[in-house]
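Page 47, continued from p. 46.
Same chain as before, 307 aa.
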Amino acid sequence: MPSDPPALSRLQPVLPSPLQPAEDERFARHGVRLLLKRDDLIHPDLPGNKWRKLSPNLAAAAGRTVLTFGGAYSNHLRATATAAAGRLLGFPTVGVVRGDELAGRPLNPSLAQCAADGMRLRFVDRATYRAKADPAVLAGLLSDCGECVVVPEGGSNALAAQGCTALGRELHGRADVIAVACGTGGTLAGLAAGLAPGQRALGIPVLRGGFLGDAVRELQREAFGGPAGAWSLDERFAFGGYARTTPELHAFADDFEDRHGLPVERLYVAKLLYGLTTLAEEGAFAPGTTVAAVVTGQPWGVPDSSR
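Result:
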């Protein structure tokens, strides 16, 4: 992985992120200990896996324009401007946004923040977005936007997976199972590779489709040359798909916030915590197991109390 240029030091991440116990009888009555890996406190604008995935990509970009992809409510776009990083480090950014019907409409808060951070937004129809990895489609986008360093949707590529190995290393000897919510698979691929023998990573996908296992295997092949570390997926907790929630999930998240004083982001973190609570109640973890849940972000608009 390329070394960070001096500019990246201006971002001042808090590493390693805190590891906090969460006393919860739903785990304790099964002999399971729950820890919260507070990656949401790494940086106020680039929290959690966004910092870990983006920092090696930004180092490789070396100040050149960064082009990346996301939906209308993309945490990835907001963090990269890939949006905030562009503002903080002073490099141009382009965000290719799924949904040409959004062009000309008032921007939602997420995209408005991207624009405020200096990101140039390029809206494309959904068919073009689905084909964004096609060389011809990508060439067309680049011809419109000029010379750019391309960072994939969600920031997941070989560099991102390599950056996330540090998350695994920070947890050596601290937990038996380390769980993370998954969108594109880069965090899980790197987390598993960074763990010590005897530890395992558990991914909770936040979208449907059943493709994530292949994506993680391909990322590990590109980043590490082949399989790395022990990992598995439980695909039961997508709650309808990406960016979708249900009243049941919101009620769970509200209750978790009341129990632990932790602001629970709904699209990733709530699904992770719901999944882990269900697994504990199902007896999926042997008595004596320590489970660490990686908190990858806070609800949009919640101030970072660590700063």
